[in-house]
Write a structure and sequence with these properties.
This protein has helices at 3-15, 30-38, 51-62, 94-98, 151-189, 201-224; strands spanning 80-84, 104-105, 113-114, 134-138. It is mainly α and 225 residues long. The chain folds into two domains: 3-73, Orthogonal Bundle (3-methyladenine DNA Glycosylase II, Chain A, domain 3); 77-183, 2-Layer Sandwich (Alpha-Beta Plaits). The strands form two sheets. The chain has a two-stranded antiparallel ribbon with strand order 1-4. The protein is globular. It starts with a helix and ends with a helix. The relative contact order is 0.12.
């Protein structure tokens, strides 16, 4: 298949996915999974949010026979919404960094909250929370798969994800030259016989210590309640 036709197929497949960016398909985002399907490198049954209806969409686009949803990648279920127990949130910002659609608002050492219209229920914030203060609540009644997820919501989620990727890319491009200059200056100023410095690890260690202390306080508060 010509490259242009392959890219066109990948784009159509991507448009048929619910754009939760949940990575449960085994790929970093919906577009990467779509590309793999177009290249015949992945089956069409690895998207739990799309469910059976999503598999039928992909079958129609690719001409491949429909398959049952891969249990290895998850089960078809209701669309969910992440909810943060703000009483236990320690403001670590790990969930903010994990959210693919910037659906969590907050700041370091400040309470976080989920902006419901932006949340895709991707579940990526759950494992990173050190105090288990995030839960998922049903948000689609009894509907599952594409019946629980409209095209408008998918378009909105993709827009949020694309905007976030551009922002992160711009941030990396802006900070890379400064980081390189700082590293070069540190090497230039360091005594030649001096042992390797641990200063770079200090901020990381300090953050880990702050999170550990916050977790200890949260556990103590829970024990008293």
């Amino acid at each position: 298949m010509p490259a242009s036709a392959l890219q066109g197929l990948a784009a159509r497949i991507d448009a048929a996915l619910p754009q939760t960016q949940c990575t449960r398909c085994g790929y970093p985002d919906c577009a990467a999974y779509a590309q793999a399907i177009a290249e015949d490198a992945a089956p069409i049954n690895q998207c739990p949010p799309g469910g059976a209806a999503g598999i039928a969409r992909l079958s129609a686009l690719t001409g491949r026979p429909p398959l049952p949803l891969s249990a290895e990648h998850g089960l078809e279920s209701q669309r969910t919404l992440a909810v943060i127990d703000e009483a236990w949130c320690i403001g670590c910002t790990l969930c903010i960094k994990a959210c693919p659609t910037d659906a969590i608002f907050g700041a370091n050492k400040r309470m976080h909250t989920v902006i419901a219209p932006h949340c895709t229920g991707c579940e990526l914030c759950i494992p990173v929370c050190p105090v288990d203060c995030i839960t998922l609540v049903p948000a689609s009644g009894g509907a599952t798969g594409w019946a629980a997820w409209s095209q408008e919501q998918a378009t909105h989620a993709l827009s949020r994800y694309t905007r976030r990727q551009k922002r992160l890319g711009a941030s990396e491009r802006a900070t890379a030259p400064k980081a390189a200059m700082a590293a070069g200056l540190e090497v230039a100023l360091a005594p030649s016989a001096a042992p390797a410095s641990d200063s770079a690890a200090a901020p990381v260690d300090a953050k880990k210590a702050a999170i550990a202390a916050a977790m200890a306080r949260a556990r103590a508060q829970r024990a008293q309640s």
